[in-house]
Amino acid sequence: MTESVDGSGELPPGWAWARLDDLGRWSGGGTPSKQVRSFWENGSIPWVSPKDMKADYVGTGTDRITDAAVANSTVKLVKAGSVLCVVRSGILRHTFPVAIAECDVTLNQDMRALTSHEGIDSRYLQFFLRSQNQRILRECAKDGTTVSSIDGSRLEQLRVPLAPADEQRRIVLRIEELFGEIEAGEQELEKAREGLTAYRLSILKAAVTGELTRDWRERNVPNETGAGLLAQVLNEQHATIGAACGAKSGWRAKGSKEVGLKTDRISSYALDKSHLGTLPDSWVAVRVGDVGFVQLGRQRAPQHHSGPYMRPYLRVANVFEDRIDVADVMCMNFTPDEFESYKLQAGDILLNEGQSLELVGRAAIYREELPGACFTNTLVRFRAGQSLVPEFALLVFRHWMRDRTFQRIAKITTNIAHLGAGRFADLAFPLPPLSEQHVAVQRATELLSAIDEAEREIGAQADEAKRLRQSILSAAFSGKLAPQDQSEEPANALLERLQIMNSSRRSLDKGNATVERRGKRSGRRRRPSDAVREDML
In the list 1, 162, 175, 388, which could disulfide-bond 18, CB 3.0-4.6 Å? Predict the structure, then answer.
């Protein structure tokens, strides 16, 4: 079968090309006034909007309106079994959602419904529309709209390869059977993916609590205690770390927000360790700001959008978990002094400072993917000190994002979660001896790499399932999926009956409109009863 809009492709014997408009009756929707409480309170009639279009069948679990809303607003009842389509929504940038009404429903103004005529299987139409997803988005999209929209008239003219009525049902049953098998496999893939997610969290936790290196410690008795390690950390010259980030006068650089080392005495060194659990005796809990330099990036203000020192910078859109993406990088002006303060160097860890709550603190190591890059205040930079391996710090930060430690300290402003450089620097950090850090990093890297590889394989299988679905649909609507019976009534005969019925319906609608116009002029409103109208159709 071709994708020709005019339906010029060759079809199997007994099939015929038809327009969607020939196969059913279209209806739209609306929104009852939210100001009228009687339209919404204790409603029993489903009111479907694009947010509900996430399954094959919709109707339950949606918003509901009352009979009064149907009688006194623009919404009308749509029969169970109708094909529901989204015609205005951001989702139309990539997907054309189609579902079946599992009961009588109403629609909002961003939806349309096609109630199929007798002899036309609604699921057949639904599967066909899904098979044409990209074509519909490409050929039926409205131009010049702020929100992605479908042109209803173009959609109505879409050509459908119509099989005989009984063959439609056989095709639908076969698609459902094959899709069911695919779905069962996808459910297993999802279980495997969830298992890998849990396993990754357990590996990260084991790495940053000492469980992953327990056997190593038993064979390699540490030469230092936790107290000795703490003393070593506190004796480090914080100016060394500060200078590494271009800081002046010890640890603070002009115009930047930086949190440097604290010099509390060991006897008064107290901090909240509740999120760390029990650490091995040779480990110590220290502040993040005691083992590294924390700095918030430079603001992206209008005065920096141009100038003689335009340089690339990274922002929150570039930093993913354990991965920096430089496919979309912007530039702004950094003076020589600012560049010295905000330039990135290999080994720096960047964390999302402003993000959705579940992703706040998402971290990755900068490995000079973009030489000469700086960073903005949507990110926090952490540069490890002498007592810390950067890759071990990354394990800790990844664990904190996944176990919600970062979520617990984040502050929410205008629906964005902010990590906060100061709050981050004051978090208690689990610090092992350097030698054990290297072992933990090596072991965790090997295990996490295996998990990543398994996830890539799952992703490949999921992609293959999508391709297989599309192949099944392609076969279905070219007559290659279900057996054909030449003794069955051909689709042309069915279409002839539908054309007669449609002609009668249009005449009825025209007469009905005339009656209504006359009724309005005379102050009265007359129209055939619904029962008579249904009999005529």
Answer: 162
Judge contact between 391 and 365, C-beta under 8 A.
yes
235 or 120, higher pLDDT: 120
Name which of 376, 381, 314 is nearest 349 in CA terms. Answer: 381
Backbone angles phi, psi at 246, to 5 degrees: 80, 20
pTM of the entire structure? 0.77
Mean pLDDT along residues 57-83: 93
Rounded Cα–Cα distance for residues 521 and 394 (Å):
77
Q: Strand pairing of 83-86 and 98-101?
A: antiparallel
The CATH number, out of the four listed (3.40.50.720, 3.30.70.660, 3.30.56.10, 3.90.220.20), of the domain defined by the range 224-432 = 3.90.220.20
Helix (H, G, I), strand (E, B) or coil at 362: coil
Q: Locate the DSSP E strands across 411-517.
A: 411-413, 416-418, 428-431
Q: pLDDT digits over 379-418, tens only? A: 999 999 988 999 999 999 999 999 999 999 999 988 899 9
Q: Is the pLDDT of residue 242 over 80?
A: no
Residue, of 55 and 521, whose pLDDT is higher: 55
Between residues 518 and 35, which one has the greater pLDDT? Answer: 35
User: Contact 376/299 with Cβ under 8 angstroms?
Assistant: yes
Rounded to an integer, the average pLDDT of 182-210 is 96
For the chain, what are the domain ranges? Answer: 1-162, 169-220+434-489, 224-432, 501-537
**Residues ≥6 apart with Cβ < 8 Å to 253:** 242, 245, 246, 247, 341
Angle at CA of residue 259, ends 257 and 264, nearest 5°: 155
Measured from the Cβ of residue 162, the count of other Cβ atoms closer than 10 Å reads: 30
Instruction: Write out the H or E segment, with its range, that includes residue 365.
Output: strand 363-365
- Max alpha carbon distance in the chain (Å)? 102
Tokens 């650089």: give the residue. 253
Q: Which two tokens stand for residue 255?
A: 């115009």
CA-based nearest residue to 494, from 165, 79, 219, 88 = 165
The predicted-structure confidence for 222-241, as pLDDT tens digits, reads as follows: 777 777 888 888 776 444 54
Backbone angles phi, psi at 414, to 5 degrees: 45, 50
Using CA atoms, how far apart are residues 350 and 324, in angstroms rounded to an integer? 9
pLDDT at 60: 83
Element (H, E) at 130: helix 122-131
Is-same-fold flag (1-162; 224-432)? yes
Q: How far apart are CA 298 and CA 380, in angstroms?
A: 10
Nearest C-alpha neighbor of 137 from the set 161, 158, 115: 158
Distance, C-alpha 212 to centroid of its chain: 33
Task: Inform me whether the pLDDT recorded for 478 exceeds 70.
Answer: yes
Q: How far apart are CA 417 and CA 413, in angstroms?
A: 6
Q: What is the pLDDT of residue 7?
A: 52
Architecture (CATH level 2) of domain 1-162: Alpha-Beta Complex (3.90)
